[in-house]
Amino acid sequence: MNQSQRTLQEYRTTATPAEVLAEAKVFFTRRNSIYATFLDREGPTFVSFRGQGGEELIIAAAVDGGATRVTGSTYLFDMQIARFFTTLPPFQLEETLLPESASAAGTGA
Questions:
Q1: Cα pseudo-dihedral 13, 25, 47, 7, rounded to 10
Q2: How far is the C-alpha of 10 from the C-alpha of 97, rounded, in Å?
Q3: Is there a contact between 46 and 60 (Cβ–Cβ < 8 Å)?
Q4: Residue-averaged pLDDT of the chain
Q5: Can you give the chain as a three-state secondary structure string?
Q6: Contact predicate 81/53, CB 8 Å
Q7: What is the pLDDT of residues 35-72, one digit of tens each?
Q8: What is the pLDDT of residue 103?
Q9: pLDDT given for residue 33 in this prediction
Q10: Per-residue confidence (pLDDT) for residue 35, from 0 to 100
């Protein structure tokens, strides 16, 4: 991944924005390692953490087209954001095809 892809990552999930932010607070503050963080600020659509050397990590979540779009931004914690995304249930867009009889009627067959 190049640097711009690592500093801003995005994921779509079936979890609600509130569930995503609650999970982020648990995931990023309960790790005992050099990548541990503490909650810095929070609002209805985001949580902000501080970690090693004052590094900032931000997770934002908003409803977008039937899914929740989760955005993670950081310079140092890109791997941890990617790992966090894997803990969220994925959103899968499913196409709904017309029944065979309806598609034949629409073509004039």
A1: -70
A2: 28
A3: yes
A4: 86
A5: CCHHHHHEEEEEECCCHHHHHHHHHHHHHCCCCCCCCEEEEEECCEEEEECHHHCEEEEEEEEECCEEEEEEECCCCHHHHHHHHHCCCECCCCCCCCCHHHHHHHCCC
A6: no
A7: 789 999 999 999 999 988 889 999 999 999 899 999 99
A8: 52
A9: 75
A10: 76
